[in-house]
Amino acid sequence: MATTYRHLAEPISIGGIELKNRFMKNGTGFFWDDPQTGSHMNQRYLDYFEALAKGGVALISSATGPLTRDVSAKMPGFKINHDDYIAGWSQWADTVHRNGAVAFAQLFHLGPMAPLLVKVPPSASASEIPLAESPRPGFGNFRAFTVPEIEDIIDLFAEAAERTKAAGIDGTELNAACNHFINNFLSRAWNRREDEYGAQTMQNRTRVAVQVISEIKRRNGADWPLIMLMNGLEVDLENGITIEESKEFAKIFVQAGADALEVRGEYYTWTKDVDRRESLHFPDMYLYPHRTGPIDPYVDASRRGAGANIPMAAEIKKVVDVPVITVGRLDWEIGEKAIAEGRIDIVSMNRRLFADPALPRKVLHGDPRDINPCSSCMTCFDACEHFDAVRCRVNASLGHEREYAIRPASVKKKVVVVGGGPSGMEAARVAALRGHDVVLFEKLHRLGGSLPVAALVKGPREDIVGLVAYLDRQVRAAGVTLHLGTAATRQLLAKERPDAVIVAAGGTHAVPDIPGIHGPNVVSAQKLHTLAKSLLQVVPPQTLRALQGLPMARDLMIGKRVVVMGGRLHGCQTAEYLLGLGKQVTIVDTSSRAEIGEGLLEAFMKPYLLYWLEDQGVEFVTDVTYDRVTSAGLVVRAMDGRSRLLAADTVMTALPLHPNQGALELASGLGAEVYIIGDAADPQLIVDAISAGARVGHEL
Fold it and tell me: Which helix (H) or strand (E) holds 428?
């Protein structure tokens, strides 16, 4: 079948291995293994990679567990540090090959860089750097690797590569990025040694990298394909790697035997918490929530992080004659254009292939509108940083491919779904695909539930609009009968004579029972949602967001000074939205200061948003009770009994939702199975709503 993405469809070779197209799955951790039993290969891992290979990606790389001599260390990751692991990796390679893809293994040693939110066995660094002298908070107090230790780690890399070859894997992706072991020696910021591994010369700085490449090639053969994953820049790091330095590194790596280079940036961000290590390779998060100030000229910030690494990759491509790969919120449009312009050769993806493993096939041979869109929510990486099993906000099947395979229902049922939000749409989609007769009632005239409101508040950084469009299209394609603009009643449900009723009607808004809460200067979350949903029936979220920012519209409903009641996820994201409208914001909550932002993901999103809110002058008032609303604002009472007026033109409620108490009453007494799901049962996050919908859809 002809494709409009002809450059992405072209074959290309890495060393002696030909790839059928230009899509690559980069190596990453999943934490689906069991460290307590040795982190051996398991069926869950094989099932995802089978789906991925069937989805049309040409090159699949899988990260192994961190290299270490301590085989008893309870470190997550499917290990390769002993011959006992070869059989499992052979299963993995066979799974990938059987379904038409090339299999590489990513090898890495943590070095001094460990996940943010867990403790791991202590390691070392290229140099001994006291915490007080560290280039960034959270890094430091590491001892320096000794030369015998360096030589042993080089041997560890080569041994692991030998085992991957014995397992039938096709090549190595060598992780010399982040601030892991190899990069640690490349960077002048971290390498302060004075021996032959020091930073005095390019030869010394690259000695570790060259020795690893050379030893792998010596043991596996000169024709063994090897991709060098490298930092094109250490962004915003004093004495960090520059583009001119990385170009020199690139030439040295290729001369040593690298058959391709995968280029990305390591983005260093400021944190006020010295116990946190804040650096990342997600350019969209580097720009979150609203980065100000100068941006490195080799970082493309024009699309909120999508394709941000392309300029640095393009610069490196000028000096080497091997394929250059890049990663970082790339999509098929950005990738096709960059390849056509000769700036990169291969598009590497991670999060988008969590969201939809079949993305390459849909791009090249199907319809991109059927791609489940990654919304850049960071749910997956937040799990990684906690050493928890990776899951995906929009793809409930990730890690559950076998149990969530679409299989015909043993008994066909008449299923009625109440509510067209994420949980209701996902339940309806899955149930209909399994052969059930599904009818969905939605009181609004469009599907989406509260998702369009979330899109309005969050703005374009998270592709909520795309998620709504995808679910809407899939629900209709699955054959669900839709009754839009129709509120479900017991009479309507009884008329359908259902075998099963799924109530996904959303939660209820919390409104404090205090004097003045229904006054003219109060905008409750329920009132705001109702108004926004009405407007969003005729105006897309991005358009409404733009219109609300116009001077004539800014103060129509919400005054200049706003007090937001609620400091958890809802309140903080509401405050971000209000600041975008030029408001002065105070956040007040009955909980402690430590609980502000609860519900936001701990990896990057919560601290970055809270830091930014503080920088914008938002005051956080905590450990109080709500007393009353007056025409002058909100009166609160502190724990010592003293009252305080928080002056405001508008008081807004943004409190966590409550379960829908009327949901069960609506569906009971019909002689049908009843399922209460999503916010109606337990208000949580979008990932939980979609997961609940998928679960009940498969259970029916």
Answer: helix 422-433
In whole angstroms, what separates CA 340 from the centre of its chain?
28
Give the C-alpha separation, 170 to 273, whole Å.
43
d(CA 62, CA 84): 18
Per-residue DSSP letters for 584-603? EEEEE-SS-GGGTTBTB-TT
Say if CB 374 and CB 354 are below 8 A apart: yes
Going by the DSSP 8-state scheme, the letter that residue 229 receives in this structure is E
Domains of the chain with CATH codes: 6-385 (3.20.20.70), 414-508+659-699 (3.40.50.720), 522-653 (3.50.50.60)
Q: Which residues of the chain have pLDDT under 70?
A: 1-2, 115-122, 138, 140, 271-277, 547-556
Distance CA 365, CA 272 (A): 48
The CB density around residue 38, as the number of other CB atoms within 10 Å, is 16
Angle at 53 between CA 47 and CA 54, to 5 degrees: 90
pLDDT, tens digit, 9 for 90 and up, residues 446-462: 999 999 888 888 888 89
User: What is the tens place of the pLDDT at every residue in 505-525?
Assistant: 999 988 899 999 999 999 988
Cβ atoms of 22 and 335 within 8 Å: the answer is yes
Give the predicted TM-score (pTM) of the model. Answer: 0.95
Can you read off the two tokens belonging to residue 355? 């969201």
Residues 6 or more apart in contact with residue 294 via CB below 8 angstroms? none
The b-or-e profile of 364-379 (16+ CB within 10 A means b, else e) is bebeeebbbbbbbbbb
Which of 580, 536, 532, 517 is CA-nearest to residue 554?
580
Could you give phi then psi for residue 315, rounded to 5 degrees? -65, -40
| CA dist., res. 585 & res. 600, Å (int) | 19
Using DSSP, state whether 543 is helix, strand or coil: helix
Give me the helix-helix angle, 43-54 and 86-98, nearest 10°: 20
Mean pLDDT of the chain: 93
CB 545 within 8 A of CB 492: no
Q: How far apart are the C-alpha atoms of 391 and 404, rounded to whole Å? A: 14
The neighbour count for residue 218, using CB atoms within 10 Å, is 12
DSSP code per residue over 274-328: TTS--EES-HHHHTTTT--S---TTS--TTTTTTTTHHHHHHHHTT-SS-EEE-S
